[in-house]
């Protein structure tokens, strides 16, 4: 092997090696009694959480404070997004009793703010919208003072499915744009950048008093200008809350991290978001869509007319 070949191999190996995770991304382990109690409630109710399925780095912090994001419609997703750790395949589960069990868990946990999300269920005609609506209604019935936030898939652009969710009147409607327009097709399976913006705009038109929210993950190859353009696009369709966090590669088969953004860069993006008129911007290396969701709600709910 020539010296040139050795240099080429060294460059290729360097490109394939994952970037070293910086100090600010270390997570403190807190397997407290609260953590174990919450896990038991989930298992007893045969419920899933995105905290576990998506390997969220904030699971110990959030569960320590007795907050969690429920994942309905099973734990097998019909899509295989290149950033997501949730299992993909052909779902077999559709549990019509799930909304009642979820509401019971909300009461047991004493939650004041619950986030409900799901796997994508493209195998269902309405994408699971009826179950989302039922969950909202059951939580309202069981715990009237609990705010309900839903983080929904795009329902493949099905307007009636979105209408069913909005008619149930969640307190916050969340749908993640995930990444910049140029990278959307590469990062997200089946989802479309324009369709996400359309869904967020439609949701606001259907229920103007329900704030909308979205999330951007960084580190998959986007540029700074593209991030700002995405923030602009979200504001144009009336989004009130945006969360910005660092992408972390869950397994070797997922997208490689191209860059780790510094806490200072995240702080700068928070200011960029606030300058654009977002009512609340959560921006940091470990921020995820549901991180500090209750604080976001208190900043925004009841103030949406000012934000728009």
From TrEMBL:
Q: Which GO terms describe its molecular function?
A: 4 iron, 4 sulfur cluster binding; lipoate synthase activity; metal ion binding
Any single biological process term in GO: protein lipoylation
Question: Where does this chain mainly localize?
Answer: cytoplasm
Where can this protein be found? Cytoplasm
According to the record, how does the cofactor bind? Binds 2 [4Fe-4S] clusters per subunit. One cluster is coordinated with 3 cysteines and an exchangeable S-adenosyl-L-methionine.
> Which reactions fall under this protein's catalytic activity?
[[Fe-S] cluster scaffold protein carrying a second [4Fe-4S](2+) cluster] + N(6)-octanoyl-L-lysyl-[protein] + 2 oxidized [2Fe-2S]-[ferredoxin] + 2 S-adenosyl-L-methionine + 4 H(+) = [[Fe-S] cluster scaffold protein] + N(6)-[(R)-dihydrolipoyl]-L-lysyl-[protein] + 4 Fe(3+) + 2 hydrogen sulfide + 2 5'-deoxyadenosine + 2 L-methionine + 2 reduced [2Fe-2S]-[ferredoxin]
* Keywords linked to the UniProt accession: 4Fe-4S, Cytoplasm, Iron, Iron-sulfur, Metal-binding, S-adenosyl-L-methionine, Transferase
Query: Mind telling me what this protein is named?
Result: Lipoyl synthase
Per the UniProt record, the lineage of the source organism begins with: Bacteria, Bacillati, Bacillota, Bacilli, Bacillales
């Amino acid at each position: 092997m020539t010296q040139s070949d050795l240099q080429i191999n060294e460059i290729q190996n360097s490109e394939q090696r994952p970037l070293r995770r910086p100090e600010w991304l270390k997570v403190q382990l807190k397997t407290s009694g609260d953590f174990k109690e919450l896990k038991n409630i989930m298992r007893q109710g045969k419920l899933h959480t995105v905290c576990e399925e998506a390997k969220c780095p904030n699971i110990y912090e959030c569960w320590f404070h007795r907050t969690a994001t429920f994942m309905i419609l099973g734990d097998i997703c019909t899509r295989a997004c290149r950033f997501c750790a949730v299992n993909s395949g052909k779902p077999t589960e559709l549990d019509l009793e799930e909304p009642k069990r979820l509401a019971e868990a909300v009461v047991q946990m004493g939650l004041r703010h619950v986030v409900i999300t799901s796997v994508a269920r493209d195998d269902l005609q309405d994408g699971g919208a009826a179950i989302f609506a039922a969950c909202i209604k059951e939580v309202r019935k069981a715990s009237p003072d609990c705010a309900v936030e839903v983080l929904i898939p795009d329902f493949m652009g099905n307007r009636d499915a979105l209408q069913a969710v909005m008619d149930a009147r969640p307190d916050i409607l969340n749908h993640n744009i995930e990444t910049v327009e140029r990278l959307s097709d590469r990062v997200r399976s089946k989802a479309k950048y324009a369709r996400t913006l359309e869904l967020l705009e439609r949701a606001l038109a259907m229920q103007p008093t329900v704030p909308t929210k979205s999330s951007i993950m960084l580190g998959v190859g986007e540029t700074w200008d593209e991030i700002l353009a995405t923030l602009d696009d979200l504001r144009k369709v009336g989004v009130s809350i945006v969360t910005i966090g660092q992408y972390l590669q869950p397994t070797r088969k997922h997208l490689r991290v191209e860059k780790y953004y510094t806490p200072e860069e995240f702080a700068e993006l928070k200011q960029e978001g606030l300058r654009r008129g977002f009512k609340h911007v959560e921006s940091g290396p470990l921020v995820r869509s549901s991180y500090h969701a209750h604080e976001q709600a208190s900043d925004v709910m009841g103030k949406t007319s000012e934000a728009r």
